[in-house]
Amino acid sequence: MPIIIVWDTEYTTWDGAMERRWSGEGEYRELVQLAAQKIDLSSGEVLDVLDVFVRPVRNPELSDCFKDLTAITQEQVDEHGLSFAEAYSQFKKFAGDTPCFSYGMDCVILQEGCVLNDMAYDLRCPFLDATVFIKNAGIDVRQYTSGTVSKAFGIDLSGHVHNAMHDVNSLTQALCALHQTLPVKVT
User: Which of 16, 37, 41, 76 has minimal Cβ neighbours within 10 Å of its Cβ?
Assistant: First the structure.
């Protein structure tokens, strides 16, 4: 029974920030949402869920670009957001030493968050880039995001792409479908 964690992040952004690689004045990739599912890869059963909002410190006002992209509201973050330290601690406890799959290397966002918040980065879980496994199945990952990759396996999900939990659901479905034909080795 291979147990893995599938996770995703949403972080602050502005018009053109990705092309600038967040090099504009005051542009920091601060965590705003972290979602994760612990799953049994063979059955697709979701064993546990984590979905938290995080209050950015350097840029507490979410940009219109970010709100349009994610459908996350300022009110959600203000009312339900944790500090980065609280969210990091919850994820650390949730993940333990379980292999964590994201679409790309989202662990960089946690590393940057630790630097911005003057914290030690001390996660024990191995991070794996799910795109490597999906590419090996002959799928052009450049055509998809974490929130749309389930479509590559004929699975169409409702929800908002770029909401971290929707994107986790999409990637979970893709990895479970992939595992049925080309087992994902996590050891």
Answer: 16
* Domain CATH number, residue 23: 3.30.420.10
pTM over 0.90: yes
Q: Are 31 and 54 in contact (CB under 8 A)?
A: yes
**Domain total in the chain:** 1
Q: How many CB atoms are closer than 10 A to CB 45?
A: 13
| Cα 121 from Cα 48, distance rounded (Å) | 23
């169409």: which residue's tokens? 156
Summary count for the chain: helices (H), strands (E): 7, 5
Q: How far apart are CA 146 and CA 102, in angstroms?
A: 8
Q: What is the pLDDT of residues 89-129, one digit of tens each?
A: 999 999 999 999 999 999 999 999 999 999 999 999 999 99
